[in-house]
Design brief:
With about 210 residues, the chain is of the alpha/beta class. Helix content is about 45%, strand content about 15%.
Length: about 210
């Protein structure tokens, strides 16, 4: 008996349905990849990048991790960004968080969670930067949701501070970095009005000449 047979059955049904709707879909998909977007999102299973923006496979390049964090020493994330920018020549990088993020929630809890605590410290730093603003809110859920938003803004800045993105701008490549957040309860995206298009829009201390 094939392990997880029901998933293979679902896969076969999906492939058949897709082929019936578009006979050449997989043939085209196998020979090209020209997405204009890189999505950096949370690994949460409730936040599927393609479905949220109603895009087909091949139309959006995706990197996901706990709480959509961009760390300057994370070679996995940096490699994805480098490939997307330098090879695929994507035009937009979207950092998308979501309300009610369990990674954000865990970062606010004063208890040990295991190895992931090392990752959550990056979110704790965001909290530290904005502690007074967050703690002024009356409910725990409001605090979590604000930190979800602030974390996106911080990660947008981290993307812009990479030499990858800055070198693209210096070479004249058209590249915009966006900050969005997704609502689990209504399925809607919210633009956090963070949209960076060039070197002159980031702090001088982070600019690489």
């Amino acid at each position: 008996m094939q392990a997880l047979q029901h998933l293979f059955d679902k896969n076969r049904k999906w492939a058949e349905t897709t082929t019936k709707a578009d006979r050449d879909f997989f043939t085209r998909l196998s020979t090209q990849q020209h997405p204009e977007y890189l999505w950096i999102g949370c690994a949460d299973s409730r936040v599927p990048a393609n479905q949220i923006v109603d895009m087909l496979p091949g139309e959006i390049f995706v990197h996901r991790n706990i709480a959509n964090v961009v760390v300057h020493t994370d070679l996995n994330c940096l490699s994805v960004i480098q490939y997307a920018v330098d090879v695929l020549k994507i035009k937009h990088i979207i950092v998308c968080g979501h309300y009610g993020c369990n990674g954000i929630r865990a970062a606010l809890e004063p208890r040990e969670h295991g190895l992931i605590d090392n990752w959550l410290r990056h979110i704790k730093d965001v909290y530290r930067f904005h502690q007074a603003e967050i703690e002024a809110l009356p409910t725990e859920q409001e605090k979590i949701n604000l930190l979800c938003e602030l974390n996106v803004v911080e990660q947008v800045a981290n993307v812009c501070h990479t030499t990858i993105v800055q070198n693209a701008w210096k070479s004249g490549q058209s590249l915009t970095v966006h900050g969005w957040i997704y609502g689990l309860e209504d399925g809607l995206l919210k633009d956090l009005n963070v949209c960076i298009t060039g070197l002159d829009e980031i702090c001088k201390i982070h600019r690489v000449k």
